[in-house]
Amino acid sequence: xxxxxxxxxGFDIGGTGLKAALIDLDRGKLATxxxxxxxxxxSSPKAVAKAIKEMLKEYSGYKGPIxxxxxxxxxxxxxxxxxxxxxxxxxxxVEALFEKETGHKFYVxxxxxxxxLAEMKFGAGKDADGTVIVLTIGTGIGSGTFLDGELFPNTExxxxxxxxxxxxxxxxxxxxxRLDLSWDEWGERFNTYLNHLEKLFSPDxxxxxxxxxxxxxxxxxxxxxxxxxxxxKFQNDSGVMGAAMYAKSRMKKK
Length: 254
Ligand code: BGC
What we know:
This protein is an alpha/beta fold. It is built from 8 helices and 15 strands. The strands form 4 sheets. Strands 1, 2, 3, 4, 5 and 8 form a 6-stranded mixed β-sheet that branches. The chain has a 5-stranded mixed β-sheet with strand order 11-10-9-14-15.
């Protein structure tokens, strides 16, 4: 019999959905189907913590730690911003809150940062050197930034300014749906954003993740930048995978 593989439960908290799956960390893949429910509205800390507890019923045999991606600036387990979730999250110790509600040890980091960890280790950024920017395109725009494989956390490139607003409101997948843009129209907008990022950071690679990454063939012909742009290998699954990887990395540091 082969060695028993390392399995950790990963959660991905989004402005629209909450996702969870057991992750096989040795093989870099989901060990169970992904469970997905809608984020409670309003998305207060109490309501989200309760929803997580409810989702955990699916994994009643699992007693281990939980990794979690969260859609805000995260510093030492505490949320420091709230763009697509209730403002009450700002200053909340998310790790302590979820641990209290569920009895599990939680390790929580920015959602795009953890999605990036999965893509860099097992996915589209495997073995990529230099500067890699992973952009998650969903309710908001998240960014995970890597230099020679090392994460530079909380870069928040979705909040760079565009005209009198932030890019996220102009180019997220939610903006595409809200404004009823065709893929061509949206692709042109996203190209403006990529050009801006390219000028500022001279990256070696962009990886596009989140909902819109599944449709890249519909809009990539609009891109005019010199930097290579690829779709995330795990698309919307990088969040749960990277969350479990993040938990593992924090456990190692102790
Ligand atoms: C938040 C980021 C998050 C991104 C994707 C943005 O609005 O500020 O922290 O990574 O949405 O969820």
